[in-house]
Amino acid sequence: MERNLKNVLVISFGFLLLFTAYGGLQSLQSSLHSEEGLGVASLSVLYAALILSSMFLPPILIKKLGCKWTIAGSMCCYIAFSLGNFYASWYTLIPTSVILGLGGAPLWSAKCTYLTIAGNSYADKAGKNGKDIINQYFGIFFLIFQSSGIWGNLISSLIFSQASDKGDISEENLACCGAYDCMTVATNTTGSTEPSNSLIYTLLGIYTASGVLAVLLIVIFLDQIKSDQAETEKEILKTPSFWSTFLATFQHLKDKRQCLLIPLTMYSGFEQGFLAGDYTKAYVTCALGIHYVGYVMICFSAVNSLCSLLFGKISQFTGRKLLFALATVTNTACIIALLLWKPHPKQLAVFFVFPALWGLSDSIWQTQTNGLYGVLFEKHTEAAFANYRLWESCGFVIAFGYSTKLQVYIKLYILLSVLVLSMVTYGAVEYLEAKRSPGTPTATEKENVGPLTQETCM
């Protein structure tokens, strides 16, 4: 157990270091590189590359390199993105975003494969249930990994708080913040002057060093899969070839229920994209300054993590319908309030209320949508979750893609429309399920879909 546990901890802390850097950078892209929408364009390209990567790269790389070296190599793709931010331009940030997107899917797949093999290996030796051990390993991993959203954003806020020229914001500039933002004004410069290059380079230096430490941790301390376990690895990877997975993904769309779940799955990408790309820029950076972005995203991450754990446990008592209703009401209230609210520095607490409520609803969208996929498509999980990753990533691509082209209030109306459509189509799915098996209770979610939940969020 000690050897396997050591490997689980090495992977967990490696991912913690890596995503401390990436999570902090993602939150800052729209504010840090607002010229011509470079920041959000890079995120849109990144998720488009991730879609392509997830279709064919993971099994090929893991077969050729093994899990350990696939993880290490993919982590280097994330470091490339950090380096691209040192001299941010269309010629540096877009190519490094593509590199990161291509490395994202193999990284998560190799991590999943490694933890699965390690769990089964220990279970065989100890005479225990393989699923139980695997769930324990994933639980340890996500317990450590989830805190990356806190540390990355905390580092950015502490560093940008060192700026000596944080001045008062004029009422004229504040008028350009919020839902009816002035598209002609660079909103990231209204709240406070842009951070100095020295502060930006300090932050990027810390993020890059964090990524390098993650790679070294994996290379030095993670054990290579043993020869007897390598056979298991090959068995896991030989089942889905590229073409079989590709065809199965689209053949799965013949199922009415899968087609009806597309709006709900895409909404997950839309709502996360709005918070990371638009709320941070048009509300927080514009009215308070870029040094508050990290604190606001910490609030979102903390509430999201706690609520994911809470709703994962209580869903067996409440059923998924009630939780989806709670998320819908919460998100709808937030969207309407964001349309009406004019952000002002004197209302500091309000800036944190929105991400907290957004984190609550996002935790439901993540846990319950994954649970819904697991329950509805139990016999076709590979194709079902491939569709989940595909459509959620499409939501990210579209949300980041139109981020600089539309005013915030239009994006909020789009978000609200997609939410309403999602709930209508979700209701149709529940109706079809009720007709198919009238005696089956609705709250049949399986708790062991927890690891899959965060798996889809790069």
Order of helices and strands: HHHHHHHHHHHHHHHH
**What is the CA-atom radius of gyration, in angstroms?**
22 Å
Figure out the total of helices.
Answer: 16
Low-confidence stretches: 185-191, 440-458
Number of strands: 0
* Secondary structure: helix percent: over 70%
Report strand %.
Answer: under 5%
Q: Distance between termini?
A: 28 Å
Please give a structural write-up.
It is a single chain. The chain has 458 residues and is mainly alpha-helical. Helices cover 78% and strands 0% of the residues. The protein has 16 helices and no strands. α1 runs antiparallel to α7.
Architecture blueprint of SSEs:
Layout: H1 2-32, H2 38-84, H3 93-126, H4 130-145, H5 148-160, H6 171-174, H7 197-221, H8 227-238, H9 242-251, H10 256-287, H11 293-318, H12 320-340, H13 348-376, H14 381-401, H15 408-436, H16 450-455
Helix pairs in contact: 1-2, 1-3, 1-4, 1-5, 1-7, 1-10, 2-3, 2-7, 2-8, 2-9, 2-14, 3-4, 3-8, 5-7, 5-11, 9-14, 10-13, 10-14, 10-15, 11-12, 11-13, 12-13, 12-15
List the keywords.
458 residues; mainly alpha; 16 helices; globular; disordered C terminus
Short description:
This protein is an all-alpha fold and 458 residues long. It is built from 16 helices and no strands.
